[in-house]
Write a structure and sequence with these properties.
It contains 5 helices and 12 strands. The chain is α+β, with helices and mostly antiparallel strands and 232 residues long. It has 2 domains: 150 residues, Ribosomal Protein S5, domain 2 (2-Layer Sandwich), CATH 3.30.230.30; 75 residues, Alpha-Beta Plaits, CATH 3.30.70.240. A 6-stranded mixed β-sheet has the order 1-3-4-7-5-6, with helices on both faces. Strands 2, 8, 9, 10, 11 and 12 form a 6-stranded antiparallel β-sheet that branches.
Length: 232
């Protein structure tokens, strides 16, 4: 896994739209890890942020960080998926002082399909509830910002794929219509006819499908998929 690291220093709050129910969301590129650190009164808080797509992947990442930092006082996890499923744990810290602050950063940054584990090495001084909330929040914010600065954040959009098979005589007209309709080309197969695969932002395919029906004298040439999230 590649890693992005942030330097120790003051952290800026991240921002982003809440992606629950939205047509797009941010996530980390697959197989990337963003790492950042915050130090308060000799306690080290190291945030590790990565892409996951289900609870099993989240749990596997959490366990890998726990093995890597087996000698740490706490390894606090928080994760959130594209469908809105989310989990967090304080891992022995006072209730709602660690896991929930980390999760709130993920929510507020518009991130989905990601997992953050904040490792704490105790520095000998109790920070109190307010200090813990600040520390776990800041460490997580820094990991998000490090990912942003390293270009590791990608936007996934609700996309509808349209596939159609046409005679060669229609090829140029269909290509022109697709371009004017905002489609992204997902490739073509050439045989007796041409099979073209196009991607649209969900909802934007309807005008193209209607225009194709008119071009084909009422025939339905388009095979339209159910919308799903992908890089557009």
């Amino acid at each position: 896994m590649a890693k992005a690291k942030a330097k120790t220093g003051s952290a800026d709050a991240t921002s982003g739209a809440n992606a629950a129910g939205a047509a797009s969301y941010l996530t980390l590129a697959v197989d990337e890890v963003s790492t950042a650190e915050f130090v308060d009164r000799k306690s080290r808080f190291i945030a590790h942020l990565t892409h996951v797509e289900n609870e099993g992947e989240a749990n596997a990442f959490i366990e890998s960080i726990r093995r890597q930092h087996y000698d740490a006082r706490h390894n606090v996890p928080a994760w959130i998926l594209a469908d809105g499923t989310e989990r967090q744990s304080d891992d022995g810290e006072p209730q709602r002082t660690s896991g929930m602050p980390a999760l709130e950063v993920l929510r507020g940054s518009g991130l989905r399909d990601c997992c953050c584990v904040v490792t704490r090495y105790f520095g000998g001084t109790l920070l109190g509830p307010g200090g813990l909330v600040r520390a776990y929040t800041t460490a997580t914010q820094r990991a998000v910002e490090a990912a942003r600065e390293a270009g590791l954040l990608v936007e996934k959009t609700l996309v509808t794929v349209v596939e159609l098979t046409i005679p060669y005589a229609m090829h140029d007209r269909v290509r022109d219509l697709a371009e004017r309709s905002g489609a992204h080309d997902r490739g073509s197969e050439y045989g007796a006819d041409v099979t073209i695969t196009l991607a649209f932002r969900a909802g934007e395919e309807a005008a193209f499908v209607d225009a194709m029906r008119e071009m084909a004298a009422g025939r339905d040439l388009c095979r339209v998929s159910e919308p799903s999230f992908s890089v557009f």
